[in-house]
Design a protein that fits this description.
The complex is a heterodimer of chains A (114) and B (113).
Chain A: E1 5-7, E2 10-13, E3 19-24, E4 31-37, E5 43-50, E6 53-57, E7 64-68, E8 74-78, E9 87-94, E10 104-105, E11 109-113
Parallel strand pairs in A: 2-11
Antiparallel strand pairs in A: 1-3, 3-8, 4-5, 4-9, 5-6, 7-8, 9-10, 9-11
Chain B: E1 5-7, E2 10-14, E3 19-24, E4 32-37, E5 44-49, E6 55-58, E7 61-65, E8 71-76, E9 85-91, E10 102-103, E11 107-112
Parallel strand pairs in B: 2-11
Antiparallel strand pairs in B: 1-3, 3-8, 4-5, 4-9, 6-7, 7-8, 9-10, 9-11
The chains are: A mainly beta (114), B mainly beta (113).
């Protein structure tokens, strides 16, 4: 158990809909990262937040957005969903004070868009 | 974008055999990380390397940070059934921001009964 929690575990929705994925980082970690893993694809970095502020952006679509709240949990919002958005979405956290490259991953949310 | 190439792409071995895999990049890395992912689960950090030439062990796993800083290697000795999974290398390329990890293409390890 990495200490990172994600909800929900599974999500099934239809094209055009909007969903919100939630992540709670390890206790004390200030950085939260979001990744997308499609079938037969590696992990693609989407976005990073540090202590409530956006720190880095990767290949995140304009239809996707994220935020980190004062209690450090984060949400990833996916809107106008398309079939191709079906994937595993992972959240990771790291300790900025220590080895901040060592990211610890949650169990993921499996999104299925029908 | 940045890409880490892992080889082999897949491995089929018998229990008890040793395993070697590697990861190469065209860019320099200051950190190399090795993760293992089981089906439907999140990646689990196995080993972190921070210095060129560094050799670090975690039980039956040993990883090395290549001297050129453009590659890394992972060895698993005396494989057991729970070693099955996908192994990813990862790191923050020097020119792409210190915390943004790039992941390798993965090596899928299967143990033949």
């Amino acid at each position: 158990d990495s200490g990172v929690t994600q909800t929900p575990k599974h999500l099934i929705t239809a094209t055009g809909q909007r969903v919100t994925l939630r992540c709670s980082p390890r206790s004390g970690d200030l950085s939260v990262y979001w990744y997308q893993q499609s079938l037969d694809q590696g992990l693609q970095f989407l976005i990073q937040y540090y202590n409530g502020e956006e720190r880095a952006k990767g290949n995140i679509l304009e239809r996707f957005s994220a935020q980190q709240f004062p209690d450090l949990h984060s949400e990833l919002n996916l809107s106008s969903l398309e079939l191709g958005d079906s994937a595993l979405y992972f959240c990771a956290s790291s300790d900025r004070q220590g080895r901040d490259n060592e990211q610890f991953f949650g169990p993921g949310t499996r999104l299925t868009v029908l | 974008g940045q890409q880490l190439n892992q080889s082999p792409q897949s491995m089929f071995i018998q229990e008890g055999e040793d395993v070697s895999m590697n990861c190469t990049s065209s860019s320099i890395f200051n950190t190399w990380l090795w993760y293992k992912q089981d089906p439907g689960e999140g990646p689990v950090l196995l080993i972190a390397l921070y210095k060129a030439g560094e050799l670090t062990s975690n039980g039956r796993l040993t990883a090395q940070f290549g001297i050129t800083r453009k590659d890394s290697f992972l060895n698993i000795s005396a494989s057991i059934p729970s070693d099955v999974g996908i192994y990813f290398c990862a790191g923050p390329p020097v020119n792409f921001g210190n915390e943004k990890l790039t992941f390798g293409t993965g090596t899928r390890l299967t143990i033949i009964p």
